[in-house]
Amino acid sequence: MIETRLLLSFICVAEELHFGRAAQRLHIAQPALSRQIKLLEDRLGLLLFERTQRNVSLTPAGSVFLKHAYSITDEITHAMADALKTSRGEIGRLAVGFIHSSAYSITPAILDAFHSRYPDVELDLHELTIWDQLRALRENTIDIGILRPPVNDPELESYVLRDEHFVVVVPERHALAGRSSVRLSDISHENFVIFSQRNSPLFYSRIIAMCEKAGFVPSVRQQAIQIHTVLGLVRARMGIAIVPEVARNLHMPGLSFLDIEDSPPPVQVTLVWRKTHASPMLAAFIDITRELYPNPRSV
Question: Regarding the domain delimited by 166-265, which CATH topology (the fold level of the hierarchy) does it fall under?
């Protein structure tokens, strides 16, 4: 095994072609440097330098070895730098899960801020449902998730990032389109486009519950999974819908959004990770998210 110090001493002598100047540069005595070069040559079993009283020059073998010595020391330098960056959370890979609706607002803002500060961290992104994210967190498939509560797992830590209120969306030619707000009882006779109970159980249950509290069961004409699909069906006059306010960010033409005067409870977006998962990259991701969305509330 050849120590790094021997390679560095060899490189210095090869660059200076003078043992005295090389010793001064390395801040060691010249005899000590001569012993190091001799030790290196003995271990290699060949001469690296031709020495005379007036000149020092590289042998052909020394010239070849110098190229490799540069490569080896460069690799060591890069390895040390990468290790330091990893310890600071500045390099590596982080698997992030997110729900589709967060892609209209929260997720792009977080990813952009994180990538700007840590460009060498590879973000492995997974669009998953709430339940798939919770399972992926437990199974170590993702490191952190952007989803909606509840998170009833003692092994998981979570913080609320934002409340999102519900709004009513109608086609722009609908009789209610000119209004800024509406009571739920005002739309009790309408046909509804609603989120799928199977694929979006949280939205489905919350919308059904708020309608029942207003005294009616919505007449469901169509079901859909994604917010943009719901909006598209409303625009096609398949019915009206109740959606989270983030749907406004899609800027889909032909629609009008109305606030709900009943003020039903909002849905929330949370950041979730395993309590036992400690890594500098994860800590950095959480810190940046909390900077963007301050004063999180644990749930």
Answer: D-Maltodextrin-Binding Protein; domain 2 (3.40.190)
